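Comment on both lines for my students:
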Amino acid sequence: MSDIEDELPILDTIYSIFRDATRRKILRLLSSMKLTADELTKELNISRPAVEKHLKQMLEIGLIERKADTYPTLKYIYTIPEPGVDLISNIQDSIETFIASLMDEFTRRLENEEQMYLLGMSSKERYEAIKVSYNSILDKLK
């Protein structure tokens, strides 16, 4: 059985895009409005070459697109085409589902450990340690 990454090398690029906080910010901005590279530079407070580097990577795989606007002067407007909007929406939905499932799982585990403690089948130290650990995880998921 072959590895999916061998079959779809674009996955590395997609993972790389979503791994980077600046590219995620660009996508958030473009999801609500059309912007030029200069506008993105101002919004992100980073250099124009840095913005162009991020845009280039996303353009290469079609996650965003660039259209020329010639009035009153030539400028390029960046947007997210429908397939990119769908990808971002699906990723967001999957992440939300994953977080909700994790929260349910750790809440259930914590309740089970509490029951074990109350029934005398677990020590107070174990229960307290697990409670601290699981509550820490749950706090991060909120």
The beta strands are 65-69, 75-79. The mean pLDDT is 91.
